[in-house]
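Researcher: Here's the sequence for the chain we discussed earlier.
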Amino acid sequence: MQSSILRKYGDARLPRYTSYPTAPRFSPAVGPGTYADWLANLPKGEPVSLYLHIPFCRSLCWYCGCHTTITKKDEPILDYLAVLREEIHLVADHVSRRLCIGEVHFGGGTPTILDPAEFVALMDLLRHRFEFDETSAIAIEIDPRTLTSDMAQTLGHAGVGRASLGVQSFDPLVQKAVNRIQSEEITAEAVHHLRRNRVEKINFDLIYGLPHQTVRSCVDTAIAAIAMRPDRFAVFGYAHVPTFKKHQRMIDETALPDSMDRNDQARAIADVLTAAGYRQIGLDHFALPTDDLMRAQEAGTLRRNFQGYTTDTCQTLIGLGASAIGRTDNGYVQNEVALGLYARHITSSRLATSKGYRLTAEDRIRGAIIERLMCDFEVDVPAICSQFGFDPTPILDTGGRLQAMANDGVLEVTEGLIRVRREYPFFIRVAASAFDTYLEQSPRASGRTA
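Model: Thanks. This is the structure I predict for it:
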């Protein structure tokens, strides 16, 4: 890659576009009353997805960008679960029928911090208030350092079919620098327990751009991870935003790699994974040819949501728990982040929505364009505009940004058909940002492009 191209586009701090508009555009104008109306008018006959946020960990990883609370005791977790169960009842009561569930995702924090019996009780409640069938998919995020054999067995019995394991880096120097000590042996043991209990679909998360990370350590981590043969990898660039995540101030900024090094690390990981038989999916995912994610990409049905790339085709996502984000056809909603405020709403029999966003017709078009770019590395803008009965001319007016990228050889533009060249996958967010009319108004930065 030409260093001039990398310097021009590689330092941009851009959203990951897991939604459009992105979360900084959410406002208190969308509150509990609005969300109640949206729930009451969900389209009949369509399955929905659930996201449950478990915002607790036993220790803090300094790179973390999630909403989580550190606790050594179980009481705060049990108190939270009592409120979460109330919210499940509250949301279900706002809908005029039993909703059919397409997918369930437990995120955190560390969802497997729950006691096995508490997890079973939570799943039983979900099955009682919502309609599950044999096609309903259940996934969970796991910290391998705290997964017990009993919990792995519980997950299998509860019908969990996919687990995402945080790996990040196996380099001891990097682990110490981010306060996350996790050996290969612990990770392999977690994978063994899961597969033995029929949780057979395994994802690994890797991160590049961490303090003291090198191309060599990234490659070594990837090789060690490949030996455990997960079905998918998600490979993220570390976003250093200590202004917003104060615990990131514990990280030595002088040990962070620069943009050129980050790019080299990302490419090295991609090369190792593809050489081992994994295929790149969109910006930052890799999957075996037999994985559902690969089939979705080949079929043109790959989607992107708050969990990244997904095969989830549900139009409605119901977020449950503090800070959880949901979406209906009308727009986005987010629950209160603070645990106390979240609990106060729910125990008062009021939805915990703190902010959200009502989609406009143009938002839907731009969101569809951005999603196809992020998923397929190409998009036919006039075709999408035609589906919405919209003139593509104002959409394609990006202030010359697309043409500038075309002049630099990063992408091609032909009569509204935009293709990002495959040798520049890490600049896909730059291309997507050309269609983001709110980007300059955003009050906060996101991660770098690579």
